[in-house]
């Protein structure tokens, strides 16, 4: 399966504005690369998004505390950030299969 990508439009820039300062990334490109790297090296799991009630695929990398969420079909990145509660956050997502 090909790696997911950010959807066209302002989504990536909006997420960088909202979550980028939580990381040591100086640019949108670094932030986007981090999200793809998290998909590549993180632990994959599924969960249910509380807002949309849709199944999502999450990727979590414990050593760097990075979380990337993608659509259930694995094609689009939805968000990327360091969870405040680290691994506990992904374990407690609704219907999380993270172990």
Structure description:
This protein is of the alpha+beta class. The chain has helices at residues 11-19, 28-41, 87-91; strands spanning 43-48, 55-61, 66-71, 77-81. The protein is globular and about 35 Å long.
Attribute tags:
24% strand, single chain, alpha+beta, 3 helices, globular, 4-stranded antiparallel β-sheet, 99 residues, 4 strands
Show the helix and strand layout.
Blueprint: H1 11-19, H2 28-41, E1 43-48, E2 55-61, E3 66-71, E4 77-81, H3 87-91
What's this entry about, in short?
By secondary structure, this protein is an alpha+beta fold. 28% of the residues lie in helices and 24% in strands. The protein has a 4-stranded antiparallel β-sheet with strand order 1-2-3-4.
User: Approximately what portion of the residues adopt beta-strand conformation?
Assistant: 15-25%
Into how many domains do the coordinates divide? Answer: 1
SS-derived structural category: alpha+beta
Shape: globular
Rg, Cα atoms, Å: 12 Å
Strand order of the largest sheet: 1-2-3-4
What is the count of helical runs?
Answer: 3
The topology string of helices and strands comes to: HHEEEEH
Question: Which spans of ≥5 residues are poorly predicted at pLDDT below 50?
Answer: none
Termini separation:
23 Å
Total strands: the figure is: 4
Helix content: 25-40%
